[in-house]
Amino acid sequence: MHSDRVLHQAVPTRSLPAEGIPAMVWSARPDMSCEYLSEEWLRFTGLPAALALGDGWSRGVHPEDLARWLDTCVRAFDAQEPFCMEYRLRRHDGEYRWVLDRGVPRFAPDGAFAGYVGVCVDIDDRKRCEHELARALERERKLRTAVEEAGRLRDGFLATVLHDLQSPVQAIATWARHLRGQVLPTSEAADALDAIERNALSQDRIISDLLDLSRVASGVAPVRRHAANEPLLAGTRILVVDDDPAARENLEKVLAIAGAEVKAASGADEALETLREYRADVLLSGLRMSTGQGYSLIRAVRGLPAERGGCMRAAALTPAERPEDGLRAVAAGYDAQLAKPAEPVALLATISRLAEAP
Fold this sequence. Notes:
The structure is a single chain. By secondary structure, the chain is α/β, with parallel strands linked by helices. The chain is about 50% helix and about 20% strand. The chain has helices at about 5-10, 40-45, 50, 65-80, 125-180, 190-215, 245-255, 270-275, 295-300, 325-330, 345-355, and strands spanning about 10, 25-30, 35, 85-90, 95-105, 115-120, 235-240, 260-265, 280-285, 315-320, 335-340. The strands form 2 sheets. Strands 1, 2, 3, 4, 5 and 6 form a 6-stranded mixed β-sheet that branches. A 5-stranded parallel β-sheet has the order 8-7-9-10-11, sandwiched between helices. It is elongated.
């Protein structure tokens, strides 16, 4: 016996559809063969009743929907439960239109299953609207994604530019402060250097504010700023390697002015020996030392374990007359390149950028 729910929804066999109903009504026997199609159904499909009745009522179903249509019908007839499905039905002019088909089981007074009765409704206009809406929503989603990605790229580019600008500005302020101490306080040079330092610090504050805004917009907490009188490279440990004593001494002097802790080596072997006990933050090495030690040094450093300095940042000093050495240095493992002899501002800016890199 059927459940009360199914019996309540069932249609008795005497309630077969009548002619003249302006709807696509159908009824089928328990074996799924069609026994009745309303005039509206025949008019919509353009099929004659002789072809549509029996097993022919599936002729108008779209080939891509036929398997789903048949599976839904078979499952419903086996379970003797109501069903509802959407599929495309060919209209008399050859156009396939979406219809909503609802069917309910029929039972004889004694409870015997007598087949189904159902009705089809043309929902093609609604489906087209849904399709257009889905396409519009997808276009809007893609546009929103593109705008968000463009915003991220813009913010990332701005942050990179600002960060690249900040190191030279800080280096200018540091060098101007040092030079100001080498001239008479009342001299015109002292006034000029004071103006340079003051403007550089002002630019640094502006860049820092913009970087903070960029970080906040990206969901990253602002970083701690250096105090105006704090050395640029305070706490930064640097290993300088060069076989030219004068060049090595000059580099040590400039870096020390910026507050860095500096150790020096005259060649690759001495540098590697120093790294056994000294953990440098940045390696600054001449590239064209004797027997190409600049290249062998960076290869050896990159082969060290991380705790020995294998991942530390490194800058190469290359001859100004050989610009191609810069590309070779980066390819060999250096993170940056400076023309030798390095200008103080460029040197401090580069080392500051490398020291702050993650």
